[in-house]
Amino acid sequence: MSSTLSRPQSGKVIAGVCAGLADRFGMSPFMVRLLFLLSCLLPGPQFVIYLILWVMMPKRAY
After folding, report:
1. Distance of alpha carbon 32 from alpha carbon 58, whole angstroms
2. How far are the Cα atoms of 24, 41, 42, 44, 58 from residue 12, in angstroms, in the given order?
3. pLDDT band (50, 70, 90) for residue 60
4. What's the CA gap between 33 and 39, in Å, rounded?
5. CB environment 42-57: b (16+ within 10 A), e (fewer)
6. What is the largest CA-CA distance in the chain?
């Protein structure tokens, strides 16, 4: 489990946001992606939050 929130260079599908969140919180990237997709069925700012995280989360250097 990583101590900082960052986007990985490998293992990403679109921008690496879900993979970075999964690594930070010790979850499977597949599970985080599935939860994100399921959350999109509900009304809310999911895509806006994803875009904000994409911009705010630094890329991992390694």
Report:
1. 19
2. 14, 22, 24, 24, 14
3. confident
4. 10
5. eeeeeeeebeebeeeb
6. 36
Residue whose C-alpha is closest to residue 60's, from 25, 23, 14: 23
State how far the Cα of 19 lies from the Cα of 8, in Å rounded to an integer: 7
User: pLDDT digit string (tens) for 1-53?
Assistant: 666 888 988 888 889 999 999 999 999 999 999 999 999 999 999 999 999 99
CA neighbours within 13 Å on the CB side: how many for 2? 14
